[in-house]
């Protein structure tokens, strides 16, 4: 699959500029490593600053879903799964919806420890979704 339209997603509950810039730096570095063939990529940043990861009411996530549905996004990159949602059931819903729209979801740091919650099988959480690392690495 050719990936031209990459969206990066930043979320932090605080308004601290350091948290935002750390995420942005990680994401840009990750995309540079992905683009080893130096293909021109269109990278768009969407951020939810000051939003808790447990709420579903975030304008950035809403925009990502809408733009995914319309085919504007080939790949979504965020620093770790918990940026999308801190509840595993809700996280699964977001990842499944993006996958249904053909969006590749990548996490540049998937070492975030996920624990079983609400009956979600963490080992199967991202089944069918391309990730940049294998579990356990």
- The CATH topology corresponds to Rossmann fold
Tally of helical segments: 4
Main sheet strand line-up: 2-1-3-4
List low-pLDDT spans.
112-137
Between the first and last Cα atoms, what is the distance in angstroms?
25 Å
Question: How many discrete domains?
Answer: 1
- The assigned structural class equals alpha/beta
**What is the CATH first-level class name?**
Alpha Beta
Mean pLDDT: 82
SSE order, one letter for each helix or strand: EHEHEHHE
Globally, the shape reads globular
CATH superfamily placement: Resolvase, N-terminal catalytic domain
Strand content: 15-25%
Count every beta strand, where a strand is a DSSP E run of 2 or more residues. Answer: 4
Biggest sheet overview: 4 strands, parallel
Helix share, percent: 25-40%
């Amino acid at each position: 699959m050719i990936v031209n339209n990459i969206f990066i997603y930043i979320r932090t509950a605080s308004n601290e500029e350091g948290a935002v810039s750390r995420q942005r730096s990680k994401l840009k570095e990750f995309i540079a490593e992905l683009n080893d063939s130096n293909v021109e990529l269109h990278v768009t940043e969407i951020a939810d600053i000051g939003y808790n990861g447990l709420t579903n009411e975030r304008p950035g996530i809403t925009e990502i879903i809408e733009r995914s549905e319309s085919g504007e996004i080939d790949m979504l990159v965020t620093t770790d799964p918990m940026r999308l949602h801190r509840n595993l059931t809700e996280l699964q819903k977001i990842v499944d919806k993006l996958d249904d729209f053909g969006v590749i979801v990548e996490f540049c740091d998937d070492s975030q420890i996920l624990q079983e919650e609400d009956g979600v099988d963490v080992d199967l959480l991202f089944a069918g979704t391309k990730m940049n690392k294998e579990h356990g690495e």
